[in-house]
Amino acid sequence: MERSSDPVNNFQDHALASFFSSDPRPTFIVRPTRSSLSEYQPFDLIYYNNALKIHHDYLQELLTSTRSSGRSRHDAHTASFISFVNKSRQGDFYHYRGILWLATQVQQEWSIFTGTVSHMRHNGEPIVPTVQSPPRQDVAHQSNNNESHPSTSGSSTKGRDIDVPMTGSSSKLALRSSPFVDWFESVDWSGTLVGPIDSWPLELRQAVTLSLSNPDPGAVYWGPERVIIYNEPFTTLIKDLHPFAMGTSAKISFGAFWSMFEDICRQVETGGQAVKHNNGAVQLDRSGFLEEAYFNYTYMPIRDGSGRICGMFHQAVETTSAVVSERQLSALLRLGEMTAQKADLGEFWQATLRSLEDNTVCIPFAAIYLAERYYSAENDLSESFDGVANTGSIYRLEGTSGSHEGLASLPSHIDLSTDAGMGAAFKAAWTQPLLTPIKARTVFEPLLAETDHGHVVVCPLKLSYDKHATCLIIGLDPLRPYDRGYREFLDLIVRQIEDGATSVVLLEQERRRMKQTVESIEQEKQRLSKALEHQMREAKESEFRFLQFAKQAPVGVYIISSDGEVVFHNEAYLKLMALSPGGRLSRHCWRDNIHPDDITNVDMQWQALINGKPRADFELRVLRHNAKPDDPDGITYLSTTCFTQLDTGGHTKSVTGISMDISVHRAHERVVAERLANALEAKRAQENFMDMVSHEMRNPLNAILQCAEEVSQLMEPYGTESQESMPPARTIASLDAVGTILYCGYHQKQIIDDVLTISKLDSQLLSLAPSPTRPIQIAERAVNMYASEIRSSNMTVFVKQAEGQNEEQCIMIDPGRVLQILINLVGNAVKFLKARPTRELGVTVSLSHERPLEGPVKFVSSGRQVAALNPSEEWGSGEIVYVHFTITDTGPGLTQEETNSLFGRFKQANPKTYAQYGGSGLGLFISRELAELHGGEIGLVSELGTGSTFSFYVRGRADKTQTVHASNDGAAASSPKMMKRRTSSSGFKRNEMISPRNSPSDDKKSAKRATVLIVEDNQVNQLVLNRQLKRHSFDTLTADNGEVALSILHRSTWWHDPVPDPVHISIILCDLEMPVMDGWTFVRRVRECQDKGELESEIKMVAVTGNARSEQVRAARDAGFDDIVCKPYSIATLVPLIHEMISGGSDEDGDGDGDGDGDEGGEGKRES
Predict the structure, then answer these.
(1) Cβ distance 678 to 586 under 8 Å?
(2) How far is CA 780 from CA 374, 574, 799, 970, 979, in A?
(3) Acidic residues bias located where (predicted)?
């Protein structure tokens, strides 16, 4: 700030000194002259600020030289300006050398002149009459667009003489009268935070006077409450907040958006200097709709007499035209960059749409329709360039840009010959000027349904001489008026698209013309580049901000010079490239940690970029610190994208790129590939499995069919009409055939059981159902199942428990799963012992609290982790007990190679095993899975020619609540499930090897008055079961469903009301799945009748079902059935069960109520 010599000492400490020193406008202050003196006399200069000294030094010279100069030294224009300075009054204006000067008087002591740079044309005369030309006339001046700029919008202001002292004693300001000023002075300021005008401090009055005299939007924020006092142009920015915001706290009135401006105010208060904020965005209603506008805001401090900042002066200058022009220019450059090197027309259109997608502010949405003839590969488009318009009628939607919801409603094809909507719009665009705005919501109503202010423009694009090649539909920016600038921008867009598309078509049709078109496009790009050099220099600041952002980016950002030196990088780049932070990076250091297998490709990509390739996308692997190339855990997978930056000569200056860590993505790909391989392997194994199952099922099925045919042929001559009896030889042959059928049926059932078990194991649906069980009884039961084969082969068998252990101790284990393992192992032993000279089989059971150790027997594990057996309601809280079973036989034995192949799925000792002994190769695999499921293991030791020992153990818990005690040996032997043990060499006695069975005479005697009600909807099953039971001396009743069975119960001896000729029913056999009323409903109705007392007592009911799942068995028991029989079943098993239930017997083994699955040898139900 410069000051004059003597008077400045009086002004130095004044509050205005600080204000004007930071004001970017040229300002000077003189002492008013007395009216009696000449108007051209030298004036008394008190002060001028830095803005005047630096930018308008000629004024400094004029002002300082005028102190002693007269009019004769200056031209007429300068002399008039001096006269204006000497004789001006409050609010006078004068235009001098491109600056509009505003005069403000302060207490008749100072005259303050503030200049605003103006681009208006002038003729050297004052904008308003000076003091020599009273009365004052309307104040007006012409702007560069020939529109008036009055001090009040829409009207001129009548001048008047104002001589109001600014001492705080007046309720009015020294301002020229206008509607806004009149309204301003009429405001009841006493009700505001600043009080009435006559109480305002001098600094506030001066600042408000300056603001109201300012032709640009401006406001004063006073005090810590930011009380806002604004001028008339400022009302265009705050819109509906005027007039309510006047005199209120800006923190409250502008609370929705004040936070940013409050930060600026605080910055001014903290720094004590003016702050400028460029290109602030607002939306203004200028033409009946909201338009975007941009302003440069300047905030200058207002200081009081002590130098303290007591307020802010806010001025706004509109920069909308510059911002919009820069944005549109960027859109044009982006379009040129993305379409410059496209050689295919389809790629060109997609690049065009992507470019428009990146500039949705300028063009919110767009759609391209291309003539269908351009999709024909055989079509010679040379006719399109002969100067004759090609008017093909079919146009196809090439693509759209933008996220407007209405784009989905655009048709994929338009036939100009039939479409009266968009087709007619296309035709109108061809006959009208190049750009045709469509404002009516008729044709494009679906496209504009969601838009408050929607306009589209249909732009016909010509390719060379083909004027009807393409139509471009462009959606206009709803925040911009469709004015001349917008039309010129769209014209440039259309021209650039036309040029690019034409070059592509010419490339496809005529190489020579393509070269000329490309050169033309390049020339146009060069012209635009030169025109943008100035803007590019200004963009460096934006580039700096980008670099600051790049430093914090989570991806690697880098710039490498053409000689390989990293000139910029962020921390993420160093981490991804395994480079040490700190210090200067050496040239080509980015190559140091690249995987050796990728370094060649990286060098090729780098060389291509140096040679001028604009972009490169590739992947590479980087070795982490001290990692080896073959260590997958030490490799980082990167995806990098590079762009070249060219110098003025067209050579590569540097390469800018980003690198992203895609290691997780690559890991996912490996997992997916591994899973795919596993799935293919599982599919192959499943196919093999189905082939094996089909083969195994067809073999016994073939034997069943042939034996059934044989029996039919043997018995057919001796049917009911023949009086001749069947010869013994035929009878024996028939019995052999029937025996074969039974054997094959059992074999098929075993295959089905194994398949179901495998399925449940694969699906992890197999679960354990522990119950208190004596392990020795499970071993006895497994051996008893093969009693007939043992007797027929004269084998010596023993079942024993380890010495010193209590046979009566109950363990919480799943008896069904353990029995299934024992059945597989004992069955294999019996099968292999039949042909041996020495046939001995032994089963030993032992208990321990420690996990059995490997001895001679080597356990074969699948590697599955065994789950912990925690105390629970199901398992109890007893001690952990390991139940160990050992099966020893004197079979043929196995070699070491054969031993290693066991326990695999579909694996047998050798190929001859199946041919000699049969089997599917699933038994030992299932046994291992079940043992491990039960927390145990299985293994074997074998010697060729001597025999084998299979051993397995399961984990359980000691039962604290139940211990089974046999009353005496006789009682145990009488149980249908019990079997005595012998350890002598003679083996089991015949009457001790099998469960006691009643002779036919005994059956007749015990079932003489037993009546069985058969509830079965399948007539074949009903007939067969009825006939079998009658053969065993039972009386039977039949019912096709539960409803018929209920009606029979109502006529039975069980019903509480007497009925004539009641029917006696001993037990009910009921199928579960039936029409009308199924077994589930039937049993619930029967039990409800019992609970109500409608039945005399509880009747025994047995469910017959083909579903052997444990859930189904459990549900049947819960529904009210006493027992369950699973199909297929043997009559030899069913008859003892009926006798037992009629007589009120119960299982003494303690395992008859287990929940094991019947298809896996479980004990939850009865089966063959």
Answers:
(1) no
(2) 87, 73, 7, 16, 6
(3) 1146-1161
Structure tokens at 373: 């003839």
Contact indicator for 4, 47 with CB cutoff of 8 Å: yes
Rounded to a whole number, what is the largest CA-CA distance in the chain? 168
Gyration radius of the chain's alpha carbons: 53
- Helix or strand or coil: residue 188? coil
Q: What whole-number distance in Å separates Cα of residue 559 and Cα of residue 582?
A: 17
**Residues, the chain, total?**
1168
**How many angstroms separate the CA atoms of 11 and 19, rounded?**
12
C-alpha atoms less than 13 angstroms from C-alpha of 179 in its C-beta half-sphere:
8
The domain made up of 177-318 has a fold known as Beta-Lactamase (3.30.450)
Q: How far apart are CA 350 and CA 338, in angstroms?
A: 10
CA distance 996 to 141: 128
Give Cα separations from 191 to 187, 197, 202, 246, 248 (angstroms).
Answer: 9, 11, 20, 11, 10
Beta-sheet pairing, 1067-1071 with 937-943: unpaired
- Strand 556-561, strand 227-230: pairing: unpaired
Structural class in CATH, domain 536-661 = alpha beta
DSSP structure class, residue 452? S
Burial degree of 794 (CB within 10 A; 0-12, 13-18, 19+): exposed
Residue 1096 neighbours by CB distance under 10 Å: 12
| pTM (global) more than 0.85 | no
pLDDT, averaged per 10 consecutive residues of the chain (1168 residues), comes to 46 66 81 62 78 70 62 69 81 74 78 68 35 32 33 33 39 80 88 87 89 89 91 85 87 80 89 87 74 87 88 88 87 86 84 87 87 67 44 80 77 79 76 54 59 72 79 84 84 87 77 70 84 80 77 86 88 87 81 90 92 91 85 88 90 91 89 90 76 70 76 77 77 82 77 75 74 92 84 90 86 89 89 87 93 85 70 81 94 83 61 47 81 90 90 90 44 33 35 38 51 89 85 91 93 88 92 90 93 88 79 84 84 86 57 38 38
Indicate the class that CATH gives domain 1000-1160: alpha beta
Alpha-carbon span 791 to 991, nearest angstrom: 10
Report which secondary-structure segment, H or E, holds 486.
helix 484-509
From the options 3.30.450.40, 3.30.565.10, 3.40.190.10, 3.40.50.360, give the CATH code of 323-518.
3.30.450.40
- Assess if CATH 3.30.565.10 describes domain 766-993: yes
Please tell me the distance from the alpha carbon of residue 230 to that of residue 297, in angstroms, as a whole number: 14
Q: At what angle do helices 345-357 and 484-509 cross, to 10 degrees?
A: 160
- Contact (CB, 8 A) for 94 and 59: no
Q: Tell me which long-range contacts 905-913 makes (C-beta under 8 A, separation of at least 24).
A: 905/685, 905/758, 906/688, 906/689, 906/692
Among 436, 476, 441, 435, which residue's Cα sits nearest to residue 455?
A: 476
Q: How far apart (Å, rounded) are the C-alpha atoms in residues 281 and 43?
A: 44
